Amino acid sequence: MGPADTGRLQDVFRRESRSLLQYARESAPYATGADRKLVAEVQRIAEEESIALGGFAEFLNTQRVPIPYLGSFPMVFTDLNFVAIRFLVPKLVTAQRLDLVALEAGVESLTDPLGQNAVRTLVDLHRKHLKELEASV
Question: Measured between alpha carbons, how far is residue 21 from residues 24, 44, 45, 107 in Å?
Answer without folding.
Answer: 5, 11, 8, 21
